[in-house]
Amino acid sequence: MRKAFLLLFLLGGMAAFAQTSPFDKVKSRSAGEGQITIRQSPDVERSINDYVVSNSRMGGVEGYRIQIYSGTGTNSKHEAQDVRSKFLNQFPNEKVFVEYSAPFMRVRVGSFRHMHEALPLLRKVKASFPSSYIVRDPSIPFNEF
C-alpha cells in the first residue's frame, strides 16, 4: 500500500501536466535508452489515469498572486487601468491581470505556485504600491507558471 501511495504521489505531480497516461510516458523510449517495465495492480493504473483526467479538466491549480489594487464605483475600471499602466512602466517583464468580480475591480500581478515565491516581487512592489499584498488564487492556468 505504501508503494502505491508513493507512486501516486510521484506521478501525481507530473500527471497534472500530462494529457496521456504517465505510464505511457514512462514505458515509451527513444533510441539508446533502456526499457522500464512496471508491474502493478490495474486498479492503481486506473486510479492514476482518473487523477490525470480530473486534473486536465480543472484548467489550473491553486496558486498566489500579488494584489496591487482593488476598488469599486464608477471610476474603478479607469483607476485599475491606470494602476496597470503604472505597474507595467516599472515592471515591464511581469504579468498583470485586471479582473472584475462584482462589485470589485482588481489588479493582480504574477503567478506563483507557493506563497514564498511571491515574496521577492512583493518587496519590490511595496515601494510603489504600499497597500499591495499576496492573495490566493484558486485557479491559475498551468501555462502561467
From TrEMBL:
Residues of the signal sequence?
A: 1-18
- UniProt-recorded Gene Ontology molecular function terms: peptidoglycan binding
- The residue ranges of the SPOR domain are 62-136
Instruction: State whether keyword Ribosomal protein applies.
Output: no
Is the keyword Membrane assigned to this protein?
A: no
Q: Which domain of life is it from?
A: Bacteria
> Which Pfam family, any one, appears in the UniProt record?
SPOR
Keywords assigned by UniProt, alphabetized: Signal
> Mind telling me which InterPro entries this protein's record contains?
SPOR-like_dom (IPR007730)
The name of this protein is: SPOR domain-containing protein
